[in-house]
Design brief:
- The protein is built from 6 helices and 7 strands.
- The chain is α/β, with parallel strands linked by helices.
- The chain has one domain: NAD(P)-binding Rossmann-like Domain (Rossmann fold, 3-Layer(aba) Sandwich).
- It has a 7-stranded parallel beta sheet, with helices on both faces.
């Protein structure tokens, strides 16, 4: 994997912060975008402040790309979500806005330059939990939409030299791991290692860990049966 220029959306903590460190250590130039300033001190790092749900997000990202140049890699690490609260459904729209619409807005900015150059790689963090969820339906729906969008787009651009990866994680030890039961949970550092591997192998879809993916698939089958016979 040749070092290049990576754009990481959401890099002040968790997976994005760990990935920033790993890429810088491997000789990459990294541009990070988050809602608050990233505490990273490195000559090849540039940080910018922007909210993916803000009205000016796309314009800010477009200006950043003009100033910093085309990105070889873009990794969308932003995500929000909470357990279902039937008395507070208004927040569900924010979950979709950040997890799905924010990713689409980002890709809309970086992809044309990649297509023009005939190379580039977009990775967005979806979830193994991108199916039907009684406990967190807005989160599951946003990730299901993201997974579908990424994989469809990957097929559309594969002949143009650009790769798109739908990276579906299970539980990662970050502030997003809110379930009381978190089987096969991995560290943010381990998750960043998986992303680095994706940048090298460039799969359309990667689900990690596989045991968690298998467990969720089985639970999805059970849920489907319950729906069919409800």
């Amino acid at each position: 994997m040749t070092a290049g220029h990576a754009l990481i959306i959401g890099n002040t903590d968790g997976i994005g912060r760990a990935l920033t460190t790993k890429l810088l250590d491997r000789g990459w130039t990294v541009t990070g975008v988050s809602r608050r300033a990233a505490v990273v001190e490195a000559p090849r790092f540039h940080g910018a402040i922007a909210d993916v749900a803000g009205a000016d997000y796309r314009a800010t990202l477009e200006a950043l790309q003009v100033a910093r140049g085309r990105f070889d890699v873009c990794v969308y690490c932003v995500g929000i979500g909470d357990l279902l609260d039937l008395d507070r459904l208004a927040g569900d729209a924010d979950v979709v806005r950040v997890n799905l619409v924010g990713a689409i807005e980002t890709i809309a900015v970086v992809l044309p330059a990649m297509l023009a150059a005939g190379r580039g790689h977009v990775v967005a963090l979806s979830s193994i939990g991108d199916g039907v969820s009684q406990g967190a339906p807005s989160y599951a729906a946003s990730k299901a939409g993201l997974s579908s969008y990424l994989e469809g787009l990957a097929l559309a651009v594969r002949s143009r030299g650009v790769q798109i990866t739908n990276l579906r994680f299970g539980f990662v030890d970050t502030k997003m791991a809110k379930s009381p039961i978190r089987p096969f949970m991995i560290s943010a550092d381990a998750a960043a290692d998986v992303i680095v591997r994706c940048l090298r192998k460039r799969p359309v879809r990667l689900s990690y860990p596989r045991r968690m993916a298998a467990l969720v698939w089985l639970l999805g089958v059970v849920t489907s049966i319950r729906i069919w016979f409800a």
